[in-house]
Amino acid sequence: MTAQTRGSARPNQWLRNLNAKIASIPMILTAVVIFVGGTAWTVLYSFTNSKLLPRLSFVGFDQYERLWEAPRWIVSIQNLAVFGFFSLIFSLVIGFVLAALMDQKIRFENTFRTIMLYPFALSFIVTGLVWQWLLNPQYGIQSIMRSLGWEGFSFDPLYNSDIVIYGILIAALWQGTGLVMCLMLAGLRGIDEDIWKAARVDGISMWKTYVLIIIPMMRGVFITTLVIIASGIVKVYDLVVAQTSGGPGIASEVPAKYVYDYMFLAQNLGQGFAASTMMLVTVAIIIVPWAYLEFGGGRKRG
């Protein structure tokens, strides 16, 4: 191909799907202005002494020093770590096991799938209120079990500061596991039937087939699921407010609630911006290396 031909081909490539490119301009501008601009604005004002209204009165890293000296923030970080770790593990394990069982061509599959996915259709506030009642020792599971004869049965995690975060975890798993199951089921249904037949011919047991063959083939599904779960973990707020409002004391505080309380209740925008910036940095530390290895590294290897 001559240089002139290559030069004439480039404009044609730019004009390809021109209508779609023009239609995407408002979305791109919105993302840049709102997301990137809003993020930069938040980081900038986290170095100020803003109170009720934002003001450019810079105080350096004072807000961050106060943040990491606050016991409430430390507790919220610890709770998020515990909640995030167990939420990831249990969501993936339970969701995959349910999907594997559902993939056995059981009767009434559509009914069971709808039942499992239904909690995800509820708002987190509704879910939190439902589980607040279920975990209430006077009216919920503990009361029911004692009325059946188990007088010594005790189950009140929302009223025990040592395990309150696990009570919130139960509600989160009840709501989100159905979605994970559906994502995993879609991945399983995409596996070629010949692979299952070949595994059976080779005498490979079912659990080894899942662990050694099927799960590695579903890598993309697992990554997508992890991103969805992780985004929900970082911004968890509604469940905590509906179930405990951060109590007992500050035992169930989470970063998102800390940010909201300082920005809108304590009227300390500088502290709220500093906390939200730390959340952003934490996410970036996890996401940026993964994105580089997943996309940038893959291109270089190719």
TrEMBL record:
<feature type="domain" description="ABC transmembrane type-1">
    <location>
        <begin position="77"/>
        <end position="292"/>
    </location>
</feature>
<keyword id="KW-1003">Cell membrane</keyword>
<dbReference type="InterPro" id="IPR000515">
    <property type="entry name" value="MetI-like"/>
</dbReference>
<feature type="transmembrane region" description="Helical">
    <location>
        <begin position="273"/>
        <end position="293"/>
    </location>
</feature>
<dbReference type="GO" id="GO:0055085">
    <property type="term" value="P:transmembrane transport"/>
</dbReference>
<feature type="transmembrane region" description="Helical">
    <location>
        <begin position="21"/>
        <end position="47"/>
    </location>
</feature>
<feature type="transmembrane region" description="Helical">
    <location>
        <begin position="80"/>
        <end position="102"/>
    </location>
</feature>
<keyword id="KW-0472">Membrane</keyword>
<protein>
    <submittedName>
        <fullName>Sugar ABC transporter permease</fullName>
    </submittedName>
</protein>
<dbReference type="Pfam" id="PF00528">
    <property type="entry name" value="BPD_transp_1"/>
</dbReference>
<keyword id="KW-0813">Transport</keyword>
<keyword id="KW-0812">Transmembrane</keyword>
<dbReference type="InterPro" id="IPR051393">
    <property type="entry name" value="ABC_transporter_permease"/>
</dbReference>
<comment type="similarity">
    <text>Belongs to the binding-protein-dependent transport system permease family.</text>
</comment>
<dbReference type="InterPro" id="IPR035906">
    <property type="entry name" value="MetI-like_sf"/>
</dbReference>
<feature type="transmembrane region" description="Helical">
    <location>
        <begin position="114"/>
        <end position="134"/>
    </location>
</feature>
<dbReference type="GO" id="GO:0005886">
    <property type="term" value="C:plasma membrane"/>
</dbReference>
<keyword id="KW-1133">Transmembrane helix</keyword>
<feature type="transmembrane region" description="Helical">
    <location>
        <begin position="163"/>
        <end position="188"/>
    </location>
</feature>
<feature type="transmembrane region" description="Helical">
    <location>
        <begin position="209"/>
        <end position="234"/>
    </location>
</feature>
